[in-house]
Write a structure and sequence with these properties.
The complex is a heterotrimer.
Chain A (H helix, E strand, L loop, with lengths): L3 E12 L3 E13 L4 E5 L6 H8 L7 E6 L2 E2 L4 H6 L1 E5 L10 H11 L4 H14 L15 H12 L6 E5 L7 H16 L3 E6 L2 H7 L2 E6 L2 E6 L1 H8 L4 H9 L2
Parallel strand pairs in A: 3-8, 3-9, 6-7, 7-8
Antiparallel strand pairs in A: 1-2, 1-4, 4-5, 9-10
Chain B lengths: L4 H17 L1 H35 L1 E7 L3 H13 L7 E4 L5 H6 L5 E6 L31 E6 L4 H29 L9 E7 L3 H39 L1 H6 L5 H32 L15 H28 L3 H19 L19 H11 L5 H25 L3 H4 L11 H27 L5 H23 L4 H4 L7 H28 L4 H12 L5 H28 L5 H14 L7 H18 L3 H19 L9 H20 L12
Parallel strand pairs in B: 1-2, 1-3
Antiparallel strand pairs in B: 3-4
Helix pairs in contact in B: 1-8, 3-5, 6-8, 6-9, 6-10, 6-11, 8-9, 9-10, 9-11, 9-12, 14-15, 14-19, 15-19, 17-21, 17-22, 17-23, 19-20, 19-22, 20-21, 21-22
Chain C lengths: L3 H16 L2 H35 L2 E7 L2 H12 L3 E3 L7 H7 L4 E6 L12 E7 L4 H28 L4 H5 L2 E6 L3 H39 L2 H5 L5 H35 L19 H23 L5 H16 L2 H4 L16 H12 L4 H25 L3 H5 L6 H14 L1
Parallel strand pairs in C: 1-2, 1-3
Antiparallel strand pairs in C: 3-4
Helix pairs in contact in C: 1-9, 2-7, 2-9, 7-9, 7-10, 7-11, 7-13, 9-10, 10-11, 10-13, 10-14
The chains are: A alpha/beta, B mainly alpha, C alpha/beta.
């Protein structure tokens, strides 16, 4: 069974002066448990909009999608309960401590309140937060914040994880750490949707890659398939060949 | 949809925790005002008391001149030494040039004591010392000496001297008259011939209730607003800015739960602040830092207190919802702050309804949010509650709060706010740019009009002023804007011919619209009562222009019809037509048109006319029918005023007929409609 | 020495940026021009509305009259357009009065006791309902009516008892104000304007000060600015000049707007005897007003910029400035008291001295001595604030924005303790 199913997802924005803008235009894809599915595209290609629709932050104009069998439009809460969403723009509450943050997100995502405490300790241990678990988030360094952020994304142990350009603004070590963590999640059997505009990252991490451009998916396959389709070897060349830049 | 209470509880607890940890904000926006307010009150009172004491011990200097100087000195001596009156310390000075002495502050008062004949005729109408309200001006009588108190009103001491000496002299006269009567043989003291006794059927508590009731809602709102705004800005706009709102939206908490939790947080803080402020005040009253009026006798039975609280609660909820909505509509903390000031004014204004004398809750005011509660609270406190109307107004406010809460919930899904699509003005061409700037441009025109009317009102001939307003501001402004944004005049001003049935509809509709407009005016004046002087002065303004009818028709009917229509139904409508749905367009353009007719009391009827005209333009896609309608409307008013036909005393039957005629005109326009191009439709 | 050319360049850049910031334009330019005229207009409209309504009420009266004088009073009463005697009278007038259906009950009878023997004597009992505005209006009208009747009765008694008219009239009391309409207008403006002026200068400095420091840090352009090839002193001097400019602009624009519109706005409140009241600012006050605006803006800008330079976010900046802002406004309370003039002791109090300088200039009562002292005192405070700022700017972490505390903490920890140690 697919953890995530997306069919014909479309998003049209209305601009007061310019009229309609089709940010996402009939996107189809799916993602299985234990798989990393990559959305590769330039800035403004529609990656973030697609993922935001998947996280039910935005309402699709057309199309449908299910997450663990829950319909995007009809059961948004259930969808969000089995989904962890991470992006550079999902910030943390600066005035909560790391522990409070994790407890808050576990509880708000419907984790049984008796289990919350144990889960928080588990996360603190797993992500090595013990030393600063009781300091306010605003006092933490960038790398520490990133760890807390990932921990809060999986606080309720969701089967589906969405990472929207997670390595933007991170240094090499932190970015590698992020990639390692994501790979670990795959090993645990989570379905992972991952968007990036960095080719090497997609190449290294993704089981299947969809190249998205101007709101449309131009191709969607594993690396070998994409190579075959375009006759190019490196992902950068594949991308350019598809986009027609 | 059900509300998950445990989610709400978790959210609320976090929300309050976050607020309390923001120590600086708490101190600056909540604690500081708590301290400053009493300090201000105390300092103000101390200063006022010191001033009173200083005046009490001030020795006013004066000089006496004139043929009756001896009599004046006698009177002044009696005035200074009269028992039972406030002390008045006087000192006579020699002043060869009293006028100069008054100017250089060496003298406070110049007493001219003359015979009636010596009194020079006043060059300009005399200005009294300011407290002459309601007192009749005394007229010199031959054979009676005149005491003229000459002072300088631009000096605190001199003005005070004139007022106090004047009062004392009147008292002296009263006493001397009583003595005269007694000497002439009146068998009892003069004051007892006519005895007036006053009795108040209202208890002292009711009288206090009236005073308190007028202010209570305003103060309550002030506290709720000042406390609530701090939380509201942080809780939505602040979260948006920090990026935590998006995090929150990806959790499984429902939008409704999020909004309810935030609302409860605002409400909790607002209510807490109100309570703290109330206790604060109470403490200062008990410590006598703030004096209470002498006749203050508040009897707050638990029932009355509960009723007042019950009435104020939906208002607190309404305000919290409004603050949350405002915060939700803003992109950032800064932007939210910018909106709060207008929100403050907007909310406080209706609460002032309690100050309108004689406005009972049993009137349309019950349907106006906040205003109804303000009036209701006053009636509860004066022990005259009107239970069914109180229930009604409670429901109205609760419903308004609910509506705003739902609107606030929608801001969480508003894409414009969550995902700020690069909405820059870069690359927009004139046409598109104007669509964004239309309201701003009209705000500028409005300010211009206001400045002109404030500075030249009454100084210019009606014709000149109308010409400046219409040709200069409206027509000129329109042409400048069309030129500046390089708009196609034909499209932007809706210059398009229409078929003959439209003209028929206009001919029927315009008079009918005028009469129904009168009805609207009468309805509106029941909510915001119009002082009769205003109506009079307005119709006088129309008539006393002393224009012959044909000139009046040109300047007050044809010119406005052409110029105002081009501006409002032409350019403004064009600027807004893609942003709003037709109904919203009708309301907004109508309202803007109303606001342009500066005076408060003309807004309702002109806004109504503006809405009709906008509807006509939208249905016909042309500005010409609106021009004709507008012209006919104004011409009818002028002709009626000229013939002194009372337009405001239309019999009800005619109102009904007019409504039918208006509906007919609307139907014709609908049948032959050629709608305005490029309107937004329901998706 | 300050590199003036660089300061000028920086100043122009900052000004341009500030003028494109919505918050600053609204708070430092739009509000000073529109807010107070608008609020005064709203107040005056509201006041005339309430007044007009109260005057417009026809008071509904129930009157019982017994005796000749009482009938005369009733005749007089019927002549009044805004007093109406209800016919038929309600069965229980007191109950109707409580319910608000009647505004007053007036019982008129011949005088009792000794007074009964005096012709024309009257005893009146006026019942009102103090918890209703209409009844209070009726009370006021009837009071005046009865007062007039009383005077008339006594005058008649005097005539009948043979008191000659001149002796009875005794004297005619007149009052004459030597101050011209323009002088009265200047007096009233001098009472009101300094108050608004202080508030507006403070508001005008507020946002630019936060924006130039905390705002720039928040936007991330702070380091760009610091990495420019010019001294930090020049950067701060330019920012200081910008904030001062906005304070000056706000104060000046507010004065101008009020001067232009106040007369027209207040007109409905003035009676016919005040028709020649000229509520316009005289041009001769303009130079002093400009100097006052500059002095006050220079002081407020220095204080605000100093406090805000510790903030890292806009919100923090606002919170840090607010106490100073309120402190600046506190002296405003003093200004509402008439008769307060610029004296030597007051010339030494910051903010108050500038406000009184302005009041003196508007009212034309300014003495040279106190004015000079006030100017020198203001300059001294400005110098002190700038001196403190340069002292603070020596700390690198403050300039870079990595210092976590506020001005108070810095002064305590480093300046005071540092000196002592």
């Amino acid at each position: 069974m697919n953890a995530v199913e997306v069919r014909g997802l479309t998003k049209v924005f209305h601009d007061e002066a310019r009229g309609e803008i089709r940010a996402v235009d009939g996107v189809d894809f799916h993602c299985r448990p234990g798989e990393i599915f990559g959305l590769l595209g330039a800035n403004g290609a529609g990656k973030t909009t697609t993922l935001r629709m998947l996280a039910t932050i935005l309402t699709p104009t057309a199309g449908e999608a299910t997450v663990m069998g829950h319909d995007l439009l009809r059961q948004p809460e259930a969808v969000r309960r089995c989904l962890g969403f991470y992006s550079a723009s999902t910030a943390l509450y600066p005035r909560l401590t790391a522990r409070e943050t994790l407890a808050f997100f576990a509880r708000i995502n419907g984790l049984d309140s008796q289990l919350v405490k144990a889960r928080v300790e588990e996360l603190v241990a797993r992500f090595g937060l013990a030393d600063y678990a009781d300091a306010r988030v605003e006092k933490l360094s960038q790398g520490m914040k990133q760890k807390v952020s990932i921990a809060r994304t999986v606080a309720h142990d969701p089967p589906v994880l969405v990472f929207d350009e997670p390595t933007v603004g991170l240094d090499v070590l932190n970015a590698l750490e992020m990639q390692r963590t994501i790979a670990e999640f795959r090993a645990e059997g989570k379905a992972i949707i991952f968007s990036t505009h960095i080719m090497s990252e997609a190449e290294r991490l993704c089981d299947r890659i969809a190249v998205i451009h101007r709101g449309r998916i131009l191709a969607c396959d594993n690396l070998a398939g994409l190579r075959q389709l375009t006759g190019q070897h490196y992902l950068e060349d594949i991308f350019v060949a598809l986009v027609g830049g | 949809m059900r509300l998950d209470s445990s989610t709400v509880a978790t959210l609320l607890a976090t929300e309050l925790k976050l607020l309390l940890r923001d120590r600086r904000t708490v101190v600056v926006s909540i604690v500081l005002p708590l301290l400053v307010m009493p300090i201000l009150l105390f300092a103000g009172r101390t200063l006022e008391e010191r001033r009173a004491r200083r005046l009490e011990t001030t020795r006013f200097t004066y000089t006496v001149t004139g043929s009756q100087a001896e009599r004046a000195r006698q009177l002044l001596e009696a005035a200074a030494s009269s028992a039972g009156a406030p002390t008045l310390l006087l000192e006579e000075r020699d002043a060869p040039d009293p006028e100069q002495a008054l100017a250089d502050k060496s003298l406070d008062l110049w007493v001219q004591a003359l015979t009636c004949e010596e009194l020079p005729p006043p060059a300009a109408p005399a200005r009294t010392a300011g407290e002459g309200e309601g007192r009749e001006e005394e007229r010199p009588v031959p054979g009676v000496p005149v005491i003229q108190l000459v002072f300088r009103g631009d000096r605190d001491r001199s003005g005070e001297a004139a007022t106090r000496v004047g009062e004392a002299l009147r008292r002296v006269r009263e006493v001397e008259r009583a003595t005269l009567l007694a000497e002439a043989g009146l068998p009892l003291p003069a004051g007892e011939v006519v005895q007036v006794e006053e009795r108040d059927v209202a208890s002292a508590a009711q009288v206090t209730g009236l005073k308190l009731g007028r202010l209570l809602t305003v103060f309550f709102l002030l506290f709720v607003l000042s406390g609530g705004a701090v939380v509201a800005t942080d809780t939505l706009a602040g979260e948006k800015e920090r990026g935590t709102l998006e995090t929150l939206l990806t959790t499984s908490a429902g939008r409704r739960e999020i909004i309810v939790a935030k609302l409860l947080a605002i409400l909790a803080v607002a209510v807490a602040i109100t309570l703290i402020q109330a206790l604060n005040f109470l403490a200062y009253v008990v410590l006598r830092l703030i004096p209470l009026p002498a006749d203050f006798a508040l009897e707050l039975s638990p029932g009355v207190a509960a009723a007042v609280l019950a009435m104020l609660l939906p208002v607190a909820a309404l305000v919290s919802c409004l603050l949350l909505l405002t915060s939700g509509r803003a992109h950032s903390y800064k932007e939210a702050q910018l909106y709060f000031f207008p929100v403050f004014l907007l909310t406080l204004l209706p609460a002032l309804a309690a100050f309108l004398p004689g406005l009972a809750l049993r009137s349309p005011i019950a349907l106006v949010p906040v205003a109804g509660v303000a009036v209701g609270v006053k009636e509860i406190l004066t022990a005259a509650p009107d239970t069914p109307m109180l229930l009604l107004t409670w429901l109205v406010n609760a419903a308004a709060a609910l509506g705003l809460a739902l609107a606030a919930e929608r801001t969480l899904s508003a894409e414009r706010l969550i995902a700020p699509a690069a909405a820059s003005e870069l690359g927009l061409k004139g046409d598109e740019l104007f669509q964004r700037h239309a309201l701003r441009a009209f705000a500028l025109l409005w300010a211009l009009l206001l400045v002109i009317s404030v500075n030249f009102e009454g100084k210019l001939d009606v014709r000149t002023q109308t010409a400046i307003n219409l040709l200069g501001v409206f027509l000129g402004g329109t042409l400048v804007l069309v030129h500046r944004y390089r708009l196609d005049p034909r499209r932007a001003l809706a210059l398009r011919p229409v078929g003959w049935p439209v003209w028929l509809a206009v001919a029927v509709g315009a008079p009918a619209g005028l009469i129904t407009g009168m009805g609207v005016f009468q309805l509106a004046s029941r909510v915001v009562p119009v002082p009769p002087e205003v109506v009079e002065s307005f119709s006088r303004g129309l008539l006393s222009a002393e224009l012959p009818l044909w000139q009046a028709l040109i300047f007050l009917a044809i010119l406005p019809a052409v110029c105002e229509e081009l501006a409002f139904r032409g350019l403004l409508l064009y600027g807004l037509h893609r942003r709003l749905r037709p109904l919203a367009l009708v309301l907004l353009v109508g309202l803007v048109f109303g606001v342009f007719h500066v005076s408060l009391f003309r807004i309702a009827p002109t806004a109504y006319l503006g809405m009709l005209l906008t509807a006509v333009t939208l249905l016909t896609g042309s500005v010409y029918p609106a021009m004709a309608w507008h012209g006919i409307n104004n011409a009818l008013v002028l002709v009626a005023a000229h013939g002194e036909a009372p337009l405001d005393e239309v019999p009800p039957l005619l109102h009904a007929a007019a409504a039918v005629a208006l509906a007919t005109a609307g139907y014709i326009l609908w049948r032959v409609r050629t709608p305005y191009a490029g309107l937004r439709r329901r998706q | 020495m300050l590199p003036l050319a660089e300061v000028r360049l920086l100043y122009l850049r900052e000004m341009r940026a500030a003028l494109r910031e919505k918050n600053i334009v609204i708070n430092s330019i739009v509000i000073p021009i529109l807010l107070y005229p608008f609020m005064m207009w709203a107040m005056v409209t509201g006041f005339t509305l309430v007044q007009g309504q109260t005057e417009g009420f026809v008071s509904r009266l129930v009157v019982t009259a017994e005796g000749e004088t009482a009938q005369a009073v009733v005749r007089e009463l019927r002549r009044q357009p805004r007093l109406a005697i209800l016919t038929p009278a309600p069965a229980d007038p007191l109950e109707a009065l409580r319910a608000g259906e009647v505004d007053a009950l007036l019982e008129l009878a011949p005088g009792r006791g000794e007074a009964a023997a005096v012709p024309g004597s009257l005893s009146a009992t006026l019942h009102v309902n103090g918890s209703r505005e209409r009844s209070r209006a009726a009370q006021e009208r009837l009071r005046q009516l009865l007062h007039r009747c009383k005077a008339k009765v006594l005058e008649e008694r005097a005539r009948e008892l043979g008191v000659e008219e001149p002796r009875w009239l005794n004297f005619t009391l007149l009052q004459r104000n030597l101050a011209s309409g323009r002088e009265m207008g200047a007096f009233l403006l001098g009472l009101m304007l300094p108050l608004f002026f202080i508030i507006m200068v403070a508001v005008g400095c507020f946002y630019p000060a936060v924006d130039a420091t905390a705002g720039e840090r928040e936007r991330g352009s702070w380091e760009t600015t610091l990495s420019l090839g010019t001294s930090r002193l020049a950067v701060m001097a330019a920012k200081y000049l910008v904030v001062t400019t906005f304070g000056f602009l706000a104060g000046g624009l507010n004065l101008a707007a009020m001067g232009v519109s106040l007369g027209a706005i207040l007109k409905p409140l003035l009676g016919p005897e005040d028709a020649d009241l000229a509520l316009t600012l005289s041009l001769s006050a303009a130079p002093v007003a400009a100097a006052a605006a500059l002095l006050l803006a220079a002081f407020v800008a220095a204080g605000m910029l100093l406090l805000a330079s510790f903030a890292r976010t806009f919100k923090e900046g606002q919170a840090m400035i607010t106490p100073f802002y309120m402190l600046t406004l506190l002296p405003a309370v003093f200004l509402s008291v008439p008769g307060l003039e610029l004296t030597y002791p007051l010339a030494l109090v910051p903010v108050v001295n500038v406000a009184l300088l302005l009041r003196g200039a508007i009212g034309g009562t300014l003495g040279w001595g106190p004015a000079l002292v006030a100017t020198l005192a203001s300059l001294a405070t400005v110098w002190g604030a700038i001196r403190l700022a340069t002292l603070v700017l020596r700390f690198e972490d403050v300039v870079l924005g990595s210092y976590g505390g506020s001005l108070g903490r810095l002064v305590r920890q480093r300046l005071l303790l540092g000196r002592l140690a």
